[in-house]
Amino acid sequence: MITTARSGKNTFKALDYLYGPGRRNEHTDPHLVASWDGFAPDPGRDSEATLAQLRDALDLHVVRYGHPVKKHVYHRMVRADPTDRNLSDEEWGAIARRVVAAAGIAPDGDPDGCRWVAVHHGDNHIHILATVIRADLTQARLRGDQYRTETELTEIEREYGLKDWSGTRTPEYRAGIPKRAKSPELRKAERLGQEETGRARLRTGVRRALAGAAGEEEFLARLTAQGIEFEVRRLPSGDAKGYKFALPSGDPGGPVWFSGSQLAADLTLPKIHERFATGVDQPAPHRPVGQGQPDTVRYRASTTVDHTTTVIDDEPQPGQVAAVVSGTIEILDTLAITSPVLSRKEINQAARALEYAAIARTRAARTEVRAMRSAARELLYAAGPTGSRSGEEGTAAATILSSLVLLAIIIAKWHAAQGHRHQADAARTAADHLRAAYTRHAAKPIAHLTLEGHRLPKPDHDRQADAVRRTLPADQATRLLAEDNWAALAATLAEAEAAGHDPNALLAHAAGRRELATADSPAAVLTWRIRRAAHLPVPAPAATPDELRTRAARARTPSRITGTPATPPTAPPAPVTPDQVRRTR
């Protein structure tokens, strides 16, 4: 069951909606199934009852209260899963009485509770409408009503044999999601014109300081570099008890402090130390930022992501998925810091969405955590100066982002299979943001490769198509050859063949992962994987659409076709042969 609540200031308008046709004529046979005393007028079934009468009855204590109430109407919807059986009016009435008791509208055994009604109008759901002034002329205490209501609905679902349609009331989900901002925090952010609350910005800062950090000293140093204040709380024995963090504040009251547990369940001191205990591989923290090769590091990180995707695509344990989600967030946080400006926002939003796909109360698998944290660490220490991105690194960024899109899709599929609806939606949202970031990096190199593919001589083009048909299953080969991006893959295979590689071996190696079937464009994914495996040079300098059209026009005149052969790498790798692929698989 799902439930949402809202407040309002017009009782008649709310009743008019409940007893009306709805926004899309979805209301059928609206009628009461329960009320505060069981005798409320019902305009749906009693021809003499009117909406005005029902409004006056509900507003009785509001009128007697004698003071303005900003929003005195409480409106809560409760809906069963579409696949659940249809509940009777008596069952919905009993559920309504339990919900208003849990919410604090009419607590059990309290004769002074608020006045309320429950209206059923088809589609296996009810609307509860109440006024928030009690019979003793005090306002109902509703703070925390959502949590109490969801807890009660969990018990109702168990007793009635219904499903948890929302996927949000399981202890694992409630414990794992980021902690919500309170109303004062939301109002403060709105007043200051900030898109996020201080708690949300602080949580992101702490996660970025944690991404790939080898130990506490490095973690705290990164917090300091961001301007985040921190304290390590200690027991009388001197042992560390917990962390608390704060953003610098110009408010008269000073910084607002949050413990790790007030930010997220996995940002407590024990959970953070648990990550440090898994270790990281490389590089050493003394390596100056920018001395690595960002393109090479992104290719290595994409290989790690691809391997991780195969792990959780093969009936993984919850601990493995928990580790992958945690490690993926660290990689995304690192990419959000080190990537070009054009994709940082989308990558950061993907990381924030994936926080809602986390799995709590499960011990993460150390192997997966170590591999992902090591990749995040290497990405951070290989980052060059902001804004000085080469074309090679743009291609490498497209490669790792395409791998991350597939990983997010697989995480969503796993959650959906477990019935975790909300977590699956969160992972799909992350995948959408990653697709947007990928498109921004991939558009120009794919456009150039597509042009090169269209310019291939027919014998070369046909030879690459035959390699696809020989290597891949028939249905997969048919889909691939019909894709818009097939020309880019054909150009890549021809380029790899010219460099001494075996196209059949490269295809077999690149396509030998089951998650490829979930890709939006398998041809594009194979293009990046093959270029990575064969160490092919940059497809071309960034070209504008006008330049591409000019090149295409020139290509139609053979006498004007000119070109400069791609500069080979300084030390070309050995060609990939079928025997090598068989040994590595």
Plain-language structure description:
The structure is a single chain. The protein is α+β, with helices and mostly antiparallel strands. It folds into three domains: 2-166, BirA Bifunctional Protein, domain 2, CATH 3.30.930; 197-278, no CATH class; 294-562 and 573-584, no CATH class. The protein has 24 helices and eight strands. The strands form two sheets. A five-stranded antiparallel beta sheet has the order 1-3-5-4-2, sandwiched between helices. A three-stranded antiparallel beta sheet has the order 6-7-8.
List the helices and strands and how they pair.
Elements: E1 2-8, H1 11-19, E2 31-35, H2 51-58, H3 60-65, E3 73-79, H4 89-103, E4 116-120, E5 125-131, H5 145-160, H6 171-176, H7 183-191, H8 198-210, H9 216-226, E6 229-234, E7 240-246, E8 257-259, H10 260-263, H11 269-278, H12 294-312, H13 318-338, H14 341-354, H15 366-381, H16 391-417, H17 421-454, H18 458-471, H19 474-482, H20 486-498, H21 503-511, H22 522-534, H23 545-555, H24 578-584
Antiparallel strand pairs: 1-3, 2-4, 3-5, 4-5, 6-7, 7-8
Helix pairs in contact: 1-2, 4-5, 8-9, 8-13, 12-13, 12-15, 12-16, 13-14, 13-15, 14-17, 16-17, 16-22, 17-20, 17-23, 18-19, 18-20, 18-21, 20-22, 21-22
